[in-house]
Amino acid sequence: MNQKGHIIFLILGAFLILALIPILITSFFWPAKILMQIIMIFVLYTTVRGFLGSGTLTLLVSAILIYFMVFKWFELFLALYILQVLLGLQFMSVIIWGVGTTMRK
User: Fold this and answer.
1) What DSSP line would sit under 17-81, residue for residue?
2) Nearest to 32 by CA among 101, 82, 89
3) What φ, ψ does residue 54 adopt, rounded to 5°?
4) pTM of this prediction?
5) Which of 47, 49, 69, 102 could disulfide-link to 77, CB 3.0 to 4.6 Å?
6) In terms of pLDDT, which residue wins out, 13 or 62?
7) How far apart are CA 10 and CA 96, in angstroms?
8) Is 104 helix (H, G, I), strand (E, B) or coil?
9) CB 23 within 8 A of CB 78
10) 103 and 10 in contact (C-beta within 8 Å)?
11) Gap between the terminal Cα atoms of the chain
C-alpha cells in the first residue's frame, strides 16, 4: 500500500487543528473572545472602507457584515480569519513542510 498518500490527511488534520485552536481559546477565555471580536470589527470596517470609500453605504455594509460575521457566526469566521492570516503570513507552507519532513524515512 502507498504510504505517501497519507500526508494529505495529515496536512488537512493540521489545518483543522489550527482552525479549532482559536475557537477553543475564545470559548474558555472571555477576554480573548472580546479582543478577537474587536479585531474582526476593525478589519471588516477597514476592508469595506477600502473598497467603497467613506460614506453611508460603507457604514451600512459594514454593519451588516459585522452582525453576521462577528456576532452571529463568530466561531466559523474566526477559524476562517485565522487560517487566512496564517496563509497570508506564509505559515501554512511551514506546516506542510514540517509534516512532509516527518513522514520521510
Assistant:
1) HHHHHHHHHHHH-HHHHHHHHHHHHHHHHHHHHHHH-SSHHHHHHHHHHHIIIIIISHHHHHHHH
2) 82
3) -90, 140
4) 0.74
5) 69
6) 62
7) 9
8) coil
9) yes
10) yes
11) 16
